[in-house]
């Protein structure tokens, strides 16, 4: 019942966001206030009424937050200057690491305006592109450039989903100051880890940055294609496993403190790691899920994996409704949902030693979970993915734990890094070989075949569950007796 209730709440949140997109830009202050008030009131009623009231409240919050986000893009103090394509000078903070193209470098920059902040897509070319490229997220800058509307292509569309309202073309960096506070700490830790990867050759070093921090900017395009075509691209995106590995590294310290302090320290570690990895959609999902699981354990009410995932998704969508259109976010959610729902059942039905059944069941469950997203987005699914994941997952897990530890120690003591990174190089070489071999298979399930296979699996699961229910056993026994 509790899992069904939270799924109803999730559906209401998504429905509210879609309704808000249909309604269009508006301040929606009253709608947001009523939604928050109704959500608070839901805690004071019985369980059945709580689900209904919470669903209505979350739908209202979804509508309001979406309309407010759209309103922030449509109306701002910069709208007039953008229409006139004015040359402006603005102070701001980099919202992400700059992304380099063939001829330019772009970065999302949060700038202060009357009534709050807005995000611009700063685009630099020539020597200015090189200057912008070396900056990192949370650096404080003063930029000059010409304001203009976002282009209607998919690259600017991605920036629009990150709340960008305009382009700053011909961007030049006039002043620079490093990040402050927790962002400075996160950047220093990130630089420490990356410094420890220096002894590796360029491609393994770029892949290790992807495995540990989700930073794939330096991975060559053919290597990215191998990982994508073999179904291993998720290894280059930070996931819940990376968060778990990071907490595992601090396990000896966490076990020495009391429960309350342990929970607070663990949450701080999760948030600091999320800052290091730039709050990518998959990082947001993994971090929110970890915080909810840690909090639930602290208060003595552990939540099921599916319930915790749904609560994390609801919270994230309520904060940022534009995540609804992030493919990376839904791939991460689909994999987690598949593991929570199916991994145990698949493992119970597989034959063989546990060291094969465990990883294979997780791989198959995650693949089932992401398949609907892959089909809706790309129209096909690599057939070799489950086998590729079975072969690569153990090495990827070792890279997540040992690679992070070796990189951190190597960053502190650079003379040790070449020796420490030798096992990491071997592990990455194995994963890349699996990706290359998997990509060479080149066999995909098209949309129709894959949907039919999923429908068959779902029907078989439902039939098995019905046959296993008490009412089904009674009915079958009575029928046999009459026969």
Describe, in plain words, how this protein is organized in 3D.
The chain has 483 residues and is α+β, with helices and mostly antiparallel strands. The radius of gyration is 24 Å and the shape is globular. The protein has a five-stranded mixed barrel with strand order 1-3-4-6-5. A two-stranded antiparallel sheet has the order 7-8. Mean pLDDT is 86; it is low at 471-483. The protein is built from 21 helices and eight strands. Helix 1 packs parallel to helix 14 and helix 7 (181-196) packs across helix 12. It has three domains: 2-74; 79-179, OB fold (Dihydrolipoamide Acetyltransferase, E2P) (Beta Barrel), CATH 2.40.50; 185-459, no CATH class.
Topology, element by element:
Layout: H1 2-23, H2 29-41, H3 47-74, H4 79-83, E1 87-94, E2 99-100, E3 104-113, E4 116-125, H5 126-133, E5 140-148, H6 154-161, E6 164-177, H7 181-196, H8 202-213, H9 221-229, H10 240-249, H11 251-254, H12 259-276, H13 281-298, H14 305-319, H15 327-349, H16 354-378, E7 380-382, H17 385-412, H18 417-420, H19 422-441, E8 444-446, H20 447-468, H21 470-482
Parallel strand pairs: 4-6
Antiparallel strand pairs: 1-3, 1-5, 2-3, 3-4, 5-6, 7-8
Query: What's the story with the biggest beta sheet?
Result: 5 strands, mixed, barrel
The SSE string, one letter per element, is HHHHEEEEHEHEHHHHHHHHHHEHHHEHH
Gyration radius (Cα, Å) is 24 Å
Stretches where pLDDT falls below 50 for ≥5 residues? 471-483
- The chain-level structural class is alpha+beta
Note the total helix count: 21
Overall mean pLDDT stands at 86
Q: Order of strands across the biggest sheet?
A: 1-3-4-6-5
Give helix % range: 55-70%
Number of strands: 8
**Tally of discrete structural domains:** 3
The global form is globular
Distance between the termini: 37 Å
Percentage of residues in strands: 5-15%
